[in-house]
Write a structure and sequence with these properties.
Blueprint (H helix, E strand, L loop, with lengths): L12 E5 L1 E6 L2 E6 L6 E6 L1 E9 L2 E7 L5 E4 L2 E6 L8 E6 L3 E6 L3 E7 L2 E7 L12 E4 L3 H16 L36 H12 L2 H19 L22 E4 L6 E4 L3 H17 L2 H20 L21 E3 H20 L3 H19 L7 E2 L4 E2 L2 E3 L4 E2 L4 H9 L5 H13 L1 H4 L30 H13 L3 H16 L8 E2 L12 E2 L6 H14 L2 E2 L6 E3 L7 E5 L6 E6 L2 E6 L5 E6 L9 E6 L2 E5 L2 E6 L4 E7 L1
Parallel strand pairs: 24-28
Antiparallel strand pairs: 1-4, 2-3, 3-12, 4-11, 5-6, 5-8, 7-10, 8-9, 9-12, 10-11, 13-25, 14-15, 16-19, 17-18, 19-20, 21-22, 23-24, 25-26, 26-27, 27-32, 28-31, 29-30, 29-32
Helix pairs in contact: 1-12, 1-13, 2-3, 2-4, 2-13, 3-4, 4-5, 4-6, 5-6, 6-7, 6-8, 8-9, 8-11, 11-13, 12-13
Length: 636
């Protein structure tokens, strides 16, 4: 669009008024004509997302409901309604000033209080973060994965953040993130379970805006704990728009013979790992020091539910409608892992006594985890970990996926247990991987005393199981399975404009009605978990506590990966000749590189960089200056 065409339509862009329009490269520069009149821009068939910087933090401002309006001071993204639209999205960047955007029945009307702004086009769902930092996957099949990541991010993950829009006047607004975009279904925020995976996805994306959201989500969890009317620092299951908090939710079994509490310790365990991941990303010791007491309070509630043998009586952990009234294997594994991370955080702060306490507790929990029944969770007869032991001492076992994978993933299982679990997972692959990932192999075996009165709601595949299944696959270098899982989810999402439901393949044993998807629509879980599995597990990009970036690819074919997002600022390539990384940032960066999952199978590599050449193993650490490259050549 040139100046003479400034009033003409261009895709979803319909009208620009009171602006001189000139082209600078591929962008449009808008310059205010009459300084006394704001620039007006009209878009049609679209939704928007404002980018606001306020109180030294970044905020996402989604606009999708008619009559909704936002005020932004940095940028606005305008996207076609359909993720698969042939129309482009637009990125409006302000050069000073601010803007107001209002959703109408036709689209968006934008008023710019600025002398100038830049409009640039992008994909219908931009392959970038909210600041325009792009990502690309130049690998076989990478285009579909890249498109799914972009569509999940812009279609579900960012619109779920309603702190300054829908939740602006809620009793708890900061950190308020929706579990489903279908607010007519339910509009609560769920600190237990949901926050864990919302946070995993956002940390994986890694933009400054996403990390600020994570910080506020953790802050909301701490505030809810401190507002516990019983002063026990319990994490509630949910907080509702009117401020109601569900600290204690009980379920009856389908036959009314059993009863269990839903998520009584889940959030308290999860927030420890969430805080550790946030610390790794930001390495902010001052933040950690200010919140360590909150983390200790969270741990104390878990210890209140732990017996003298180190066994956590967690009741229900992840599954809403499975009656687990007792000690749950996966909860035991998560608790041992979380207390180990808490010990690490105490060590970072120089709190030696506390570190020693939590480290010893973690080891005690891990020892109990792998001990045989009746005191532990391992069944020597069946050679697998059981799911849970109820308060009558009866073990329940339906070949639970996470109960068996987690002790191996966290490194607690013995070599013999690890081998048995590997055989179990392999022998039941057809059940576990019907869709990533099924909660158990024998879902038909649950009886009416084990299923909640809401029905067999969880006896299926869900994103929360998939994340930890993918973590197990990563620990076992099962890269092909990781890729297959990602492709299955991306293909399913593409059928419905990249919106995902809460539960999948429930047309298998339960809910046989011709539909694979059930539960809430436009749900948060699979989009967030997809982002975390793709970036963290398959592409192998994470931020550890002791380096700027860890690179541990699980690629199954040659190609290259680019992530301009400053958290990563990396390009890496994989070919038959070796592996290479380039530091795309403007400062030196320390990298921890693990090539053990790639197909070289080499014991040693020749590492060449600007600092010289040396022989290294598959695991190496180096510092690269800005814009410099390093190359690993396998030594046969």
């Amino acid at each position: 669009m040139n100046e003479s065409q400034s009033g003409a339509a261009n895709g979803i862009l319909q009208l620009i008024e009171n602006a001189k329009v000139s082209r600078t490269g591929t962008d449009l520069l808008l310059t205010q004509k009459d300084i006394h009149t704001p620039i007006q821009i009209v878009f049609t068939r679209c939704q928007g997302l404002g980018v606001q910087y306020d109180q030294n933090q970044w905020w996402a401002l989604p606009i999708s409901a008619t009559s909704a309006q936002v005020h932004a001071n940095r940028a606005l993204w305008i996207l076609p309604l359909d993720a698969t639209s042939t129309n482009h999205s637009w990125h409006l960047v302000l050069h000073g000033g601010d803007l107001d955007a209002k959703q109408t029945e036709a689209g968006l009307t934008i008023t710019l209080h600025a002398e100038s702004a830049t409009l640039s086009e992008s994909e219908a769902r931009p392959h970038s973060d909210p600041f325009g930092h792009r990502f690309s996957l130049d690998i076989p099949g990478g285009a579909k994965l890249e498109e799914a990541l972009a569509a999940f991010y812009w279609g579900t993950m960012l619109p779920s953040v309603v702190e300054k829009t829908m939740a602006a006047n809620f009793s708890y607004s900061s950190g308020y993130v929706l579990s489903t975009l279908n607010v007519n279904s339910y509009a609560g925020s769920y600190p237990s379970v949901d926050h864990e995976f919302q946070i995993k996805g956002r940390i994986a994306l890694g933009s400054e805006l996403d990390l600020d959201i994570v910080k506020r989500m953790i802050g909301l969890q701490f505030k809810l704990m401190n507002d516990d009317p019983e002063k026990l620092y319990r994490m509630p299951t949910s907080v509702q728009p009117d401020g109601r908090r569900e600290y204690h939710v009980r379920r009856n079994s389908e036959d009314n013979h059993q009863n269990a509490a839903m998520f009584p310790v889940t959030g308290n365990i999860e927030v420890i790992e969430e805080s550790w991941r946030y610390y790794e990303a930001r390495k902010n010791l001052a933040w950690l020091r200010s919140d360590i007491v909150n983390l200790e309070h969270s741990a104390q509630w878990v210890l209140t539910n732990t017996d003298q043998y180190g066994r956590v009586w967690s009741d229900v952990y992840y599954e809403d409608q499975v009656i687990k009234d007792g000690r749950v294997t996966q909860a035991q594994a998560f608790a041992a892992h979380a207390f180990s991370l808490l010990a690490d955080m105490e060590t970072l702060l120089g709190r030696r006594d506390e570190a020693s306490l939590y480290s010893a507790t973690s080891k005690k929990m891990a020892t109990a985890l792998i001990a045989p029944l009746p005191m532990g969770y391992w069944n020597p007869a069946s050679q697998r970990f059981i799911d849970w032991v109820d308060r009558n001492g009866e073990a329940h076992d339906h070949l639970h996926l996470l109960a068996n994978e987690l002790p191996v993933t966290f490194g607690y299982a013995t070599p013999d247990q690890t081998a048995a679990v590997r055989h179990l997972i392999k022998d039941n692959a057809d059940q576990f991987e019907r869709f990533p990932s099924f909660v158990a192999a024998d879902i038909a075996g649950y009886d009416k005393s084990e299923i909640g009165d809401g029905g067999p709601y969880d006896l299926c595949a869900a994103g929360r199981y998939w994340y930890w299944d993918a973590a197990f696959r990563t620990s076992q270098s099962q890269s092909g399975i990781l890729l297959d899982q990602l492709n299955k989810v991306a293909a399913e999402a593409a059928k419905n404009s990249y919106f995902m439901s809460e539960r999948y393949d429930m047309d298998h044993v339960y809910y046989v009605d011709g539909k694979d998807a059930h539960g809430a629509e436009k749900y948060y879980e699979y989009p967030n978990v997809f982002a975390a599995v793709l970036i963290d597990k398959f592409l192998g990009l994470t931020v550890p506590a002791d380096a700027d970036l860890a690179v541990a690819p699980h690629l199954t074919s040659y190609g290259s990966v680019d992530f301009e997002i400053p958290e990563y600022a990396i390009r890496y390539s994989y070919s038959k000749n070796g592996f290479a990384i380039k530091n795309l940032s403007d400062k030196p960066r320390r990298y921890k590189v693990d090539l053990s999952a790639l197909a070289f199978h080499a014991a040693h590599y020749q590492l060449t960089s600007s600092s010289g050449s040396k022989l290294v193993t598959a695991h190496s650490t180096l510092t690269l200056p800005p814009q410099q490259e390093a190359h690993w050549t396998p030594v046969q």
